[in-house]
Amino acid sequence: MTDSREPLATAIELLRDARRIVVFSGAGLSKASGIPTYRDADGLWMNQDAVQYSHADDLQRDPAGFSKFWAQRLAVVERARPNAGHLALAQLQRLRPATRLITQNVDGLLTVAACQDVLELHGSLRRWRCDHCGNRRGPWLLHRCKRCGSRARPDVVMFGEMLNPGVLLDASAAARACDVFVVVGSTAVVYPAADLPLEALSAGARLVTLNVEPLHLDTSASAVLRGLAEELLPRLVTGLEDGN
Ligand SMILES: [Zn+2]
Predict the structure, then answer these.
(1) Residue 148 Cα, ligand 1 centroid: separation in angstroms?
(2) Among this protein's residues, is 122 annotated catalytic?
(3) Where are the beta strands (DSSP E) in the chain?
(4) Distance between CA atoms of 183 and 6, rounded to whole angstroms?
(5) Average pLDDT over residues 124-140
(6) 97: Cα within 13 Å, side-chain hemisphere
(7) Angle, to 10 degrees, between the axis of helix 165-177 and the axis of helix 195-202?
(8) Cα–Cα distances in Å, from 169 out to 7, 124, 165, 166, 176?
(9) CA torsion, points 146, 148, 152, 158, in degrees to nearest 10?
(10) What is the CA(161)–ligand 1 centre distance, in A?
(11) Smallest Cα–Cα separation from 153: which of 170, 163, 164, 138?
(12) Range list of β-strands (E), 74-115
């Protein structure tokens, strides 16, 4: 950890000078909360059920199996608690209210940690909706819409579905308007995650990367923090607080 001290000081300096900060997070942020990632070999996503029920067409193909699978996923998320990384980002927003949070995670843990206006690129498992009548408020009775009786589904972007264009537009605008763009726990290789840091960079923002593994973005970063989000984010925010 000693060789991460200097990049950490650089990152704190960058945040201190920034008016607008964007923090883009991926699965690495929620790992310490027990949320399995797509990539983990032992992750719930890698089992046969995940393959069967993660495509938009699966709701029609096997409605009961679909509901059961996603209800189990929701149960995992509802048991999970925000970790020190989520809480540090909430604190960052209190210190710097112009901070925007963009995430690929569907666990809603940033919001549980009291973060504000989180841009959830892939939606949230904590919100469900009826595909048939558009009901988004429930109540859901045995995963069915009480209004029309159709099956409800999580408000999550499945494979084969488009991202919410409004959320994407907001994320892109935030990336282009920020002074510092921080990538946390995401490999940022798939669209739109791959584009947002580049949009920020081309608009003149400085880039900070924080990840366990090296990222291709590291070569464009002003500070590269190597390690766990739940350890490094609190140190980053404490450093910012100390200088205030
Ligand atoms: Zn309905």
Answers:
(1) 4
(2) yes
(3) 21-25, 100-103, 119-120, 123-130, 140-141, 144-145, 152-156, 180-184, 206-211, 223-226
(4) 18
(5) 89
(6) 0
(7) 40
(8) 31, 18, 6, 5, 11
(9) -160
(10) 19
(11) 138
(12) 100-103
Cα–ligand 1 centroid distance for 56 (angstroms): 17
What span, in angstroms and rounded, lies between the C-alpha atoms of 19 and 180?
8
DSSP symbol at 52: H
Q: Which domains does the chain have, with CATH numbers?
A: 1-35+81-122+163-244 (3.40.50.1220), 36-79+125-156 (3.30.1600.10)
Single-letter amino acid code for the residue at 159: F
pLDDT, tens digit (0-9, with 9 covering 90-100), for 34-46: 987 655 444 445 5
Cα 53 to its chain centre, rounded Å, is 21
Long-range contacts of 132-138 (CB under 8 A, 24+ apart): none
Q: How far is CA 166 from the centre of its chain?
A: 16
Three-class DSSP category at 25: strand
Structure token pair of residue 124: 């949230």
Per-residue tokens: 143: 């995963």
Q: Report CA(195)–ligand 1 centroid distance (Å).
A: 35
Q: Does the pLDDT value for residue 238 go beyond 80?
A: yes
Q: Is the pTM of this model over 0.85?
A: yes
Distance 109 CA to ligand 1 centre (A): 27
pLDDT given at position 63? 87
Contact residues for 119 (Cβ-Cβ < 8 A; gap 6+): 100, 101, 102, 103, 167, 170, 171, 174
Q: Of residues 55, 122, 143, 216, which has the active-site annotation? A: 122
